[in-house]
Records
---
Amino acid sequence: MSPHILFLPGAGGAASFWYPLGALLPSSWRKTYLSWPGLGLEPHDPAIQSLEDAVAHAASKLERPSVVVAQSMGGVVAVRLALAHPERISHLVLTATSGGVDMAGFGASDWRIPYRAEYPNAADWILTERTDLSAELHRIAIPTLLLWGDADPISPVGVGRRLEQLLPRARLRVLAGGDHAFSRDRAAEIAPWVAEHLRE
C-alpha cells in the first residue's frame, strides 16, 4: 500500500511550501498539503485561534497511518500529533523546527518581529506561542528523520542535535548551506533522503 503523506508548512501558512518536494516523491504516494488559516497570507478561519486548534485541524487529516512531513512551526504541530495519535503516524520528517524544545539555549534568532512586518494581518496567537515538549519527547517511538540546514539562524543545527538525543528513533541529516526554507528551495537534494526514510 502506498503511503499517505501529510505535509505541514511553517508559520508562512501556505500549503504550496511543500509542492516542490511532493512533486519529486513517487506519484503513487498519496499527498495531502495542509495550510494554516490565519497565518502568513492565508485567509482567517474562526475555528483556528490557537496552536491547539491547529493541531486539531491537522489531526482531522491523518489517516491510519500517515507520514507527517513538517517544517518550522509545523514541526511543533507534528510532535503534538505524534504524542496524541502515535497509532496514526508511521513516520515523521521534521525540518528546521523547534520540535517543541526551548530554543533559548541554541542561539536562535527571533523571527517574530520580521514575521509581523511581512505578515501584518497574521493571527496574533502565532507570535505568543511558546511550547516546550522536551520532557515528553522520549515517548515518541515513531521513526523520525531530522533535516537541518547549517546556515539557518532561526533553527540552528544544535536544535536538530538536541532532538536527535531526545527522540528514541531519530536520525539527523544536515544540508550544507541550507537556510530556513531549504526544504522548499532545495527539495531535489532532500527528496532522496525522505524517500529512503519512508521505505525503512
---
Amino acid sequence: MIVVYTAHGCASCRKVKAWLKENGINFIEKNIFKTLLDSKEIKYLLSRTENGTEDIISRRSKIIQDSKIDLDEISTDDLCDFVVENPSVLKRPIIVSEKNMQVGYDEEEIDGFKRSEIKKLARCDRNCPHYDICGAVREEA
C-alpha cells in the first residue's frame, strides 16, 4: 500500500494525489496536520531515506531556523519528538510504498510507483479472484 504524507494547500501534494488517482493506484493519505504522526512513524520515514534528515526535513523552515536546532547533532529521539510537535518541518509530499520512497513531485520518478503496483498485480495467477483485472493490467504494461 502507498502512503502519501500531505498538507492542505500543497500544490505538489495535489499533483501526486491526482497522478495516483489517474493511474488507478490506491493510496492512503495522511495529512501531517490532521493525522498526528508519532515518533515511531518519523523513525520509519528516516530509516527509508538515503540522506537522513536532509531528505525529509526542510532546513529552511522558519521553525528550524528559529529553534536553532542542529540537525546533524540532535539525537534521533529528540528529533522525532521535535517533528511530532512541529510537523510543518517535514518536506511534502512524502510518498512511501513497500519498495519506493519519494519526496516531492517528480514526473519521472513517480512512475516507479506505477511499475511496483503492476509488478504486485503480476504475481497473481489464474487462482487469484482478481485475475481478470490483473491479466488486463499485464497486457497494457
